[in-house]
Amino acid sequence: MVVRPSTREMVFKSKEQWHWFDCPRQLGTNSPDTPVNCAVVDEVPIREGDVVLAMSDGVIDNLWAHEIVEKVSESVERWERGEGREEGIVEGEDGRDMMGFVAEELKEAAKVIALDPFAESPFMEHAIEEGLASGGGKLDDISVVAAMCRKNKG
After folding, report:
1. Which of 19, 69, 108, 117 could disulfide-link to 23, CB 3.0 to 4.6 Å?
2. What is the model's pTM?
């Protein structure tokens, strides 16, 4: 997903890649899914300041896209106000500290829903559409990588 915090909008979201409901493609060791046969490549117009996210299904099964956009935008704003920094830590020029904070905040938001048996979640909604009884979040691995687009200083 690509989020534009300056306007609080989702610029791009990849399509879910499933074999069937709750069985995502997995490009990894011992998987029949291979990058050569299954990887999808998209071209996305980006701007400086956009945040590019790579997330596991533990995030997107527990947070709707608009919640991800809001959490990322809010986290960037909080960081810029000086919140969320440990004492003595100063953001590097490459923005890694800010993006670490953004990823951690997004991970924690997904974890809250994953652990809540009464929460409404995208996974619950999809399960019901498939005719399966489901309630609450989905406990799963939750991984987030966040990167902010910046101009090269070349």
Report:
1. 19
2. 0.87
